[in-house]
Amino acid sequence: MKSAIRLSMYALLCWGTLFAQPGREVILQGFYWNTHPGDVTTNQGLWWDTLATVASQLAEDGFYTVWVPPPSKGSAGVQDMGYGLYDYYDLGQFNQKGSTRSRFGNKTQLLNMISALHNAGLKVMVDVVLNHRGGADAQQFEDCDDGDGKQLRWTAFNPLSHRLPGDSTDFHPNTWHCDLNPNYHNRIFFEDVCYFHGLDNALDGGAPNSGWYFGPHNLGHMGDSLVVWGRWLIQTLGFDAVRLDAAKHIEPGFMAPFLVELVNGNQPFAVAEFFDEDMALVKSWHDDVEAFVSTWGTGSKNANIAMFDFNLRSALRDMCNNTTGTFDMSTLNSRGLRFSTNPLNGDDIVTFVENHDKDRIGWVVVNCSDPHDTQFGNTCLKLSTDSGHDPIFSDKHMAYAYIMAAEGRPSVFWKDYFWFHLDDEIRWLMALRRWFATGSSSPLDQLNPYFASGSAGDFFAFIRSGSGGGTDGCVLALNDHPTDQQEVWLNTPFVNQELKDYSDSYLFTTTEAFADSRTLIRVKARNFAWYAPTGLYPHPPGIDGSKFTLSATPGQKLHFVALRASDAASFVVNGAPIQPGDEIAIMPLSATQPDQAVGIGRIGQRFRWDGTHDMLIEVLGGSTSAGGTSGLMEGEGWKLVVYDSSQQNYMVAGSIMFAPHSTVFNFVPDRPTASGGNTPVSQTVNHAQATYKIGGISLTTGFNASDISLPVTLTGFTARWDGLGLTLSWRTESEVNNLGFEIWRAEGLDGPFVLLAD
């Protein structure tokens, strides 16, 4: 038995929702092709400052890593995206190539950006260009004749940093590799770097182990110098991970030593841009890099590398852009590096929907002759499309749902998040990923599908097996048909549990996973559905958890209790209409604590009343339930409890009003546009009292939750148990018309109270 003062000392405590966090591994690509350069006539760039400004927002939204563009000065100076790398050590502090700053800003702005992202708890992944170099200061003859005579090439580099100069021996063709053969020696971009000319096996001859952490490695002076540069990026500048540009054209014999030598410890995360849809070719190169040191090279440590999944992205593009529904969804059973015949592990995959090589629209500097140009300071800009433009332009939410549910690290494109209004959808999906996307994955053709309606050409699904506890794992379903819902029976990771669609496309409905795991999965036209056990409350990390905690077992059947914003005046909390920030939950009549909820009110993925959207409480129970805090039995009574955010107090509704049976009402949810947005959902009341009913739909039209507050301002309160009794003491700052104090005791939040002393 617990004693309580009538003032309700529950307000002294704060309960938060507990949840599993499988890892916030989502990447944001923090740029797009030809990002806004700002006013190129000044030394203050725009982009590094932009990333610093949004750092806190990105962390709150659930991102883990921000991928930033190449920071070194490019051959086109202020207009270079960094991929035409000229001076490895010029971060915007040397006046060369027509500017001091880079396209993104100056060195100080760069370092401030890294600090801002770190201070927000984010990792920073730097784009690293190792394959080529451009913008040389003079021409030289090729180092060797590869069959057409020694040609003049731009290969003499004398950067103002005075670090890593170069000449013709550093590029192909040279005496070490006297050819321009693909994939490793051809000039795809600018001059192709040779990593092995002047082979010396020593990084620093005067240092212990010749400067190697895990070597020696068989590299030449250019390869050695790039390893030193890589260490500088990580250890001096503070980058945490690397994205490797044009990796298809870099030998595994250099890539592996470069990665393992970055730090004297665990290798930073690395992902390679192997721009090819041939999954066997990608897998072969990946395996060569990870096995190179122990199989062919020298040294004591193998590399770890992940690969961008271009094959999957191509399939997602075709699915999304083909709005007629004639794309064959069954091909997704074998598309992507995870579902290929010789798959990669999920840890070795980075999935993406869009990137700067697929969306090629960006800003270029123009001469201000067109009145439609955009002027920024003394610079005029316009949007221009470069070659290779191949974006997803329709139903992109379906692609993001796939990569957020799938194994691998998903990468979100800047424009999708900040330009194309997909931020709400992506935040929602990131929250679902954090809660549910765990365990191994299996595609539809391994799930014994039976089509109740629709066809394999229009439907695809895969499962995540979860950790076995029954509260994670999921089913992700996709439907590309332009008009028709798909309904498919398939095997799921769940047994004897009720599932719901956490996309909120389907509200007020559930589906059952039977004893053989078979489940009927529904998905609407041109959309996705994300199924997992009922009774879970995913939300972004920047959204506070509820002041209530669910004690009922997830996966039970639901009774839906709706509260509409239009009825707010009748929802009385402590003598006044409910206010934004207040919370509501359903509890068993026997409950005594806020951590014994059987249903928590939510508006989308938030728990606070907002005064605009309607609130839904999904109450857990079942006909065979033991009842009480583990879930309600059919016909069992419940009570409505309100958390008053202004008073930081919990109060029980003494009276509740319901709309009559058969009342038709519209429910206005808060959900992403692709799932229906704020479009009202029509429902019919089938239960009009405060008792649990499986599949029940109740509309609460009013309640009165009140508390009797003492006419004093408390400054301190203590309760001390001395083995014989409980001593209560308190101090007041002020008292208004106070006639004295009474101490009451109750066994629960709903009383009855018994007077102990006055």
Roughly what fraction of the amino acids lie in strands?
Answer: 25-35%
Major sheet details: 8 strands, parallel, barrel
Dominant shape:
elongated
Helicity level, as a percent range? 10-25%
Q: In terms of structural class, how would the helical and strand content be classed?
A: alpha+beta
What is the count of DSSP helices, taking H or I runs of 4+ residues?
10
Number of strands: 41
Termini separation (Å)? Answer: 21 Å
Radius of gyration: 31 Å
Overall pLDDT: 92
Widest sheet, order of strands: 1-2-5-10-11-12-13-17
Q: Give the uncertain stretches in residue-range form.
A: 1-23
Keywords:
about 750 residues; alpha+beta; Immunoglobulin-like; 8-stranded parallel barrel; 7-stranded mixed barrel; 10 helices; elongated; disordered N terminus
Describe, in short, the structure shown.
Helices cover 15% and strands 27% of the residues.
What does this protein structure show overall?
- The protein is α+β, with helices and mostly antiparallel strands and 758 residues long.
- Among the domains are: 441-532, Golgi alpha-mannosidase II (Immunoglobulin-like), CATH 2.60.40; 545-705, no CATH class; 712-757, no CATH class.
- Helices cover 15% and strands 27% of the residues.
- It has ten helices and 41 strands.
- The strands form eleven sheets. The protein has an eight-stranded parallel β-barrel with strand order 1-2-5-10-11-12-13-17, surrounded by four helices. A seven-stranded mixed β-barrel has the order 27-32-31-30-33-34-37. A six-stranded antiparallel sheet has the order 18-20-21-26-23-24.
- Helix 7 (310-321) links the parallel strand 12 and strand 13.
- Helix 4 packs parallel to helix 5, helix 5 (252-260) crosses helix 6 and helix 8 (396-405) packs parallel to helix 10.
- The model is unreliable at 1-23 (pLDDT under 50).
